[in-house]
Amino acid sequence: MREKIIIDTDPGQDDAVAIFLALAAGDRLETLGVCAVAGNVPVVQTTENALRIMDVAGRRAPVYKGAERPLIYALETAEFVCGLDGMDGAGLPGAVSAPETEHAVDFLIRTLRGSDDGSVTLCPLGPLTNIALAMRLAPDIKPKVKRIVLMGGAMNLGNITPAAEFNFYVDPHAAAVVFDAGVPIVMFGLNVTLRAICSHEQIARFAAAGTATGRAISGMLARPRSSSLGSVGHPIHDMCVIAYLLWPELFGGRDCFVQIEMGDGSLRGRSTVDWNNRLKKPANALVIDTIDAESLLNRVIETTSSLS
Ligand code: BDR
Ligand code: CA
Q1: Using CA atoms, how far apart are residues 127 and 94, in angstroms rounded to an integer?
Q2: DSSP secondary structure code for residue 148 in this structure
Q3: 50: part of which helix (H) or strand (E)?
Q4: Within 10 Å of residue 36's Cβ, how many Cβ atoms?
């Protein structure tokens, strides 16, 4: 039986690779919908980007526009990393398809309410605003969620600040709501995603597939980057989330208590991972810390080659 998933995303080049991978793995993953959220770029653009991704992949899942800004703080975006349209290097035309009219949060609530207990996996790849709003508006949906496998946070690392990873920094209150929800969480933080680096040789193999999707991926990963966020090569953070659903044997981690810093000071958005259980609090996440990056990238190249 295919795993039912909902992707919540702010594409973003690495979000795009994650979505391509989910669509390519349609024999194992049933993507019920793709919810766009404000993050890397404003939500109008992340919605447009989700549609552009569907158009080029030649496979579809319904796309829903979601929250325009974080729960409390003003929106901060990352065009300096992703480019003005959030997908610099993809070379994709404007979307020909259109989003659904229903709001992403309403879609999440409606879909989860109509599902069996423990039957839907949520895959957040951006700020957790949509997911937190859905859980606050309709707490009865929580038992419907099988697990939340997300990209966000870090263990003792930051990218947008020395203390914080971008997704948690942008909406730390939403992250706190989600980590407090009592739903099983698998956390892919920077400590592991910064090791999912695509080499030049692997980037060339994406292009060698000879497909529009392969060209889009290689263009995004090969583009010159103006940011200096401390990584060598091109990390594909968000792709790890979908890869974990397909190939969990490539990853390892530990159940830990994770706390998100919400205050607007220098620690805003920091995720403190109690790796050695100093606080004696129950674990709220499986925190991933090992990855077989080479096998992972090879499998992603092979799987996405089935797209248009
Ligand atoms: C995360 O922030 C975004 O820029 C990426 O898409 C990824 O989700 C990495 O910190
Ligand atoms: Ca993202």
Answers
A1: 24
A2: E
A3: helix 43-57
A4: 30
Question: The dihedral of CA 194, 196, 202, 205: what is its sign?
Answer: negative
Contact by Cβ (8 Å): 186, 286? yes
d(CA 248, CA 297): 14
74 Cα–ligand 1 center, Å: 18
Both tokens assigned to 154: 């870090």
What does the pLDDT look like over 234-252, one tens digit per residue?
A: 789 999 999 999 999 999 9
| CATH number, domain with residue 43 | 3.90.245.10
Please give the span between the terminal C-alpha atoms of the chain, in angstroms, as a whole number: 25
**Does pTM top 0.90 for this prediction?**
yes
For 72-116, the pLDDT digits (tens) are: 999 999 999 999 999 999 999 999 999 999 999 999 999 999 999
Q: Residues 288-300: pLDDT tens digits?
A: 999 999 999 999 9
Predicted pLDDT of residue 200? 86
Residue position matching structure tokens 């795009």: 16
Do the beta carbons of residue 275 and residue 218 sit within 8 Å?
Answer: no
Nearest to 296 by CA among 245, 221, 225: 245
Percent of the chain surpassing pLDDT 90: 94
**Ligand 1 and 12: CB distance under 6 A:** yes
152 lines ligand 1 (CB under 6 A): no
Q: Which of 45, 125, 239 to mutate to test the pocket of ligand 1 (most atoms within 8 A of CB)?
A: 125
Domain, as residue range, for 32: 3-304
Cβ atoms of residues 99 and 63 within 8 Å: yes
CA distance 200 to 214: 14
Residue range 170-190: average pLDDT? Answer: 98
pLDDT at res. 232: 52
The Cα 2–Cα 63 span in angstroms is 20
- The answer to whether 200 is a known catalytic residue is no
- Residue tagged 């992949």 (tokens): 57
Answer yes or no: is pLDDT of 150 > 70.
yes
Q: Name the domain count of the chain.
A: 1
